[in-house]
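User: Could you walk me through two proteins back to back? I'd like the raw sequence and the structure tokens for each, with a short line separating them so I can tell where one ends and the next begins.

Assistant: Of course. Protein one, sequence then structure:
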Amino acid sequence: MAGSSGVTAQYLRDGFLRGLISAIPALADPSLDEAMADAIAQGEAQVQMDLGTRFQVTHFLPQMDAGVLAPVASGVEYEFPYTWPGRVPGDGFTRIKVRVRPIVQIVSMTLYVPGALIPNFPVPLEWLRVDRQTHEIMVAPTAGSAAYALAFGQGFMNWRLPATVQMEYYAGLDETGLSQWPQIKRLVALRSMLLLMPTMSLWVNPGQFSSESADGLTQSRNSAYMFKDMEDRLEKEAETLLNRILDVWEGPSMLYL
């Protein structure tokens, strides 16, 4: 999963680590860059999963057969088809949430039902009402097509059909999109720091997991590390920030209403 949030090792050094480097010069060692890059990559992947997005506009293609997937270029992913009708209440209209947001473009929606009178039904794009940020699509047949839509829809009355809706679409945040949500970069930096701190602690004090008695004859081991208090603060900030972003993208949770 490609990601490019803008968070770099230098970004962390100029931000969260700036004060620590003054007190602990070892953290400025370029040898730590590899561990920092790995933590940032993991942090980006975690935030993309938590927010249901990608840090580049990605082309999603439907795939459901048992064959070998064709190779794809960077920025292209396969997705398993969706259930028809969607699980989101729609006041009589089908609503489907795609898996990644924000939606940039819907290329096609096709209902695939082997054995049906119409096994492949391309849903006209003019029937679709798209909420890009909440990644929700409402299927609303136009007036001139209502009779045809009803005839087609009767075959689905009181049925839920898994792996029926094949979607091709583009979704994700490009550089411009990310610049509109600076909170996301902050969240990636927080997640990256949380992943990096155990390595930082060992880097600064390799002997931290053992302690020697006063007489030098016995040694004990413990699991604490020197950045525990900082970890607690950053974890709390990360969870708060994640919830704030999701509240804006999805609306406040019903638990808080």
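----
Protein two, same layout:
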Amino acid sequence: MICDIYYIDWIFIDTIIIVLLFLLLLGVRIFKITHRWRFSFSNQALEHFEFSKTQDVLKNPLVFTKKWSLTRNSSLKVNNHPLLLIIRTNRKRKFVRILTEGLCSNGFKVINLKVQIKRKSQKVETEINLINDMNLIISTVIDLCKKSNLPINSNYIVLNHSKSCLSFKPILSDNTNNGIILINPKINKQNLKNYFDIIEELSSNPQIYCIFSRNSIFLLKNHNLLKFIKKFYPQYSNILKFSAIKKAKNSFKNYETIVLGILIDLIENKLFSSKNYI
């Protein structure tokens, strides 16, 4: 009887310990994922300027934005690097923040612009309005930065990291644009149309470069990369250029430095060298 009173169910206790250890490991994993990215720039020389409450200035029927930001390296007194304009249509900002810090640390000025494109019927006049609205937003953002005593180049290069369909023609039709770099673009019917619309106009002078991850999630292949190669290679290989990072997933986690290296090489040796910036 006495032995029954002090009997301990060790199997039950071990089970509790195992569950608690599992929860602890899960918590550490979640903490590492959510706090891996810095919420502020580690380079103290970087200056960050935010612009907001501008919806009245940029109120367009198809494309609009509420805020944007400019980041520059204050330690560089003489800066002849081109202006980089990062356009995104989604809420994901962590990877973009890493790219911004890395590019600005290498001497570039970066404007982060979040746009929203309203859904409209696919008509000719709608496409024309989209071209005008997108160009108007870009030119207005650049002009407002200049009026704020933040000197920047009028010529710019677009970096697009978005899953939404963003028409290339409105941007490439701008005389001050020197190219577009797409990071893991989504290859669907609308984007395929965007590619084919500009292939003839680009001729043999490539202005669009794509950076893909080999995988999407886990070990699954990036189906957007496979579609891109199937549709455009080898017949358009002289116009549409791409790089694929082996073993990288669509988040590019642990491969940010490689992406930065590819971006800097494309900008300085492919796009920046094609024109002289003021």
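Confidence is low (pLDDT under 50) at residues 121-125, 274-278.

Let me know if you want the two compared in more detail.
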